[in-house]
Write a structure and sequence with these properties.
alpha+beta; 642 residues; nine-stranded mixed beta sheet; Four Helix Bundle (Hemerythrin (Met), subunit A)
Length: 642
């Protein structure tokens, strides 16, 4: 706890810096003046002057320590006084109504006559301490609330919940003075600064009204400021401009407090009094009023502008919401398109493979058709000697028949005719074999067999005729029968060959057309395959493009979502800004305008009178006439422990 008190004291040093600066300036000013006076005396009289309080002045500084209870009520008061002795006076006269006075820094003694003191300073500064029961010029009343209900400090110790600590400052120092042409009772102005420290392991969500919070992550130092009595003395309608209270709220666990320290000082106002408001040459009431008027107009325009900004932010949020919905639809559509492109790519790959198979099959078919056409051409060419042979065979058979009929006319003639017939038959047989080879047929096979038998018989007959005519009659009879059979076969062969010739010619024409169509089909299937390859490549590119589209749409979706969130935050911020500016305009600027719309000269007169009162209230326990003085008050409350 003692360590925390040091931190609090360090924070309050900021408040005392101004006072220390005034002391320093005043000390050096007084010392310089006295040095000049002493030098003048010595040069004129040429004698040694004894340095006593009768011909030189010292300064009295007081610090009033108020030891208070946790509610701000005073337990006891201890005053520390310092009699500054810049010119090393041998004795210092002083006035003090303190009791139990003790020299706290040195062995210098004093004599007392009522409230008058004479210190045997012997050139030293005097530091002494005493007790007092006088009423203080300013007091503080501290109240505590737990979850909205008032509670004593002792009852609050160890409790948890929403805690509110309220400091209400009261100014008891009021003096009658002249304001303009009238007499008024005004408060002597005091600045009240209260400091305390919170452990952030116990206190969270700390908020301060009329103050500020400083934190290092482990502890929070809270400073509260107030100007008690100022609003009433200046007759201001708004008490929030110069507050006489401060309030701290926090969420607390296991409440305890290291106490509070409050400083009351009027030295800031004493410095203002030294500057004399009425003597400011550049000060112009008219120009100030004009500036306040412009400030009011600018504040109203700022409020209107912030309202327009909020409306624009709302429109932006609406637009970004629509954009976000559209981008989500785009992403969904791009995903579906990518799925379709994937299926299309798979299908076109199969199509290209099938087109290649068709192309290869058609090429094979085209080769077969061309080979068939070539065979048909050869078959047609083979019919010519066959038909010629059949014709010769028919002629030979006729001659044979004639020869058989005129066999009696001579065997030689018959034999020669038979030889011719055999030769013709052999020629027909050779043609039939060629036809059979080109176009195998059962009829051709029978014809060939029959003709071979016939030729063999004819050769036997010819042989028999060569042998001298043995069995010639039987041979002639057989020959007649064979000739008739051959004649019938030749007739059938001739008819079949004619039909076959016509069919072969039709087949040739059909194969020619089929070959031409097959060539076109080969070209078409080749074009189909090339086109399928291009389609496959195109769908692959399409698939890659849809993947890129999906990725882009996904990023766009994330971006639009963030844009929507940003627009929402902007809307909330614009709303907060508009509300804050409106509140600032209403509670700040316009109230300031209303203050300056009143009698500003009278306001300055009151402020000047109050600062003049402050310059006169420069001691607590008493002050010698002609001696400079200053006083500050330090009030410390007890710790609140579990």
């Amino acid at each position: 706890m003692k360590r925390y008190q040091k931190y609090i004291a360090a924070a309050l040093t900021i408040c005392l810096t101004t006072s220390a600066t005034f002391y320093y300036a005043d000390n050096h000013s007084a010392k310089a003046d006295n040095s000049i006076e002493t030098t003048t005396i010595r040069s004129s009289e040429k004698t040694q002057v004894s340095k006593t309080a009768s011909n030189l002045t010292s300064k009295k500084e007081e610090m009033v320590y108020i030891f208070a209870n946790s509610d701000g009520s005073v337990d006891h008061t201890l005053v520390s006084a310092c009699l500054k002795n810049p010119d090393s006076l041998s004795s210092i006269n002083d006035i003090s109504d303190l009791t139990d006075i003790v020299n706290v820094k040195g062995w210098e003694e004093f004599s007392k006559n009522g409230d008058s003191l004479t210190w045997a300073a012997d050139g030293s500064d005097i530091y002494y301490q005493g007790k007092s029961q006088k009423e203080l010029p300013v007091s503080v009343n501290i109240t505590y609330l737990l979850d909205g209900n008032e509670i004593s400090a002792q009852e609050l110790a160890g409790k948890s919940g929403k805690v509110t600590i309220r400091f209400t400052y009261e100014n008891h120092s009021r003096k009658q003075t002249t304001v303009g042409e009238n007499q008024e009772t005004l408060a002597v102005p005091y600045l009240a600064v209260t400091g305390t420290m919170f452990d952030l392991n116990q206190f969270a969500n700390i908020e301060v009204t009329n103050g500020s919070v400083l934190t290092d992550g482990n502890r929070a130092v809270v400073l509260c400021l107030a100007l008690p009595g100022m609003t009433e003395s200046l007759q201001l309608e708004d008490d929030s401009l110069l507050p006489d209270y401060a309030e701290i709220t926090a969420d607390v666990s296991d409440f305890s407090l290291a106490g509070t320290v409050t400083v009351f000082t009027n030295q800031l106002f004493q410095s203002i009094a030294n500057k004399d408001l009425d003597s400011l040459d550049n000060f112009s009431i008219d120009s100030l009023s004009e500036a306040i008027s412009k400030l009011s107009e600018a504040s109203i325009q700022l409020e209107d502008g912030s309202s327009d900004l909020y409306e624009g932010a709302v429109s932006l949020l609406s637009g970004t919401t629509s954009l976000d919905n559209g981008v989500k639809d785009l992403f969904q559509g791009a995903t579906q398109l990518n799925s379709g492109a994937s299926s299309l790519a798979s299908g076109t790959k199969e199509l290209s493979s099938g087109a290649k198979t068709v192309q290869d099959s058609v090429k094979t078919l085209d080769v077969g058709i061309k080979n068939t056409k070539s065979g048909a051409d050869k078959l047609t060419e083979g019919y010519v000697p066959v038909l010629e042979g059949v014709s010769a065979l028919t002629q030979g058979l006729k001659q044979t028949a004639d020869g058989i009929d005129s066999l009696s006319d001579g065997m030689d003639t018959a034999y020669e005719s038979l030889k011719q017939t055999i030769a013709a038959n052999e020629q027909v047989l050779e043609g039939l074999k060629q036809v059979y080879t080109a176009a195998p047929s059962e009829n051709f096979e029978k014809m060939i067999q029959t003709l071979e038998v016939t030729i063999a018989g004819q050769k036997q007959i010819a042989a028999s005729m060569t042998d001298g005519g043995k069995g010639l009659k039987d041979g002639i009879t057989a020959l007649c029968a064979g000739t008739k059979t051959v004649s019938d076969g030749i007739t059938s062969l001739s008819s079949g060959l004619n039909s076959l010739s016509k069919g072969t010619l039709s087949l040739k024409d059909g194969l020619t057309q089929l070959s031409e169509g097959s060539s076109k089909l080969v070209s078409g299937t080749s074009s189909l395959y090339q086109a399928s390859v291009q389609v496959k490549d195109g769908t692959t590119t399409l698939l890659d493009g849809t993947k890129t589209l999906v990725d882009g749409a996904d990023k766009l979706k994330d971006g639009s979502s963030k844009l929507k969130d940003g627009a929402s935050d902007l809307t909330d911020g614009a709303k907060t800004l508009a509300d804050g500016i409106a509140e600032f305009n209403e509670t700040g600027i316009q109230k300031l305008v209303s203050v300056f719309d009143s009698d500003i000269e009278l306001l300055i007169d009151r402020l000047s009178a109050m600062t003049e009162l402050s310059s006169k209230e420069n001691n607590f326990s008493g002050l010698m006439e002609g001696m400079d003085g200053s006083v500050s008050y330090l009030l410390k409350t007890n710790e609140i422990e579990k």
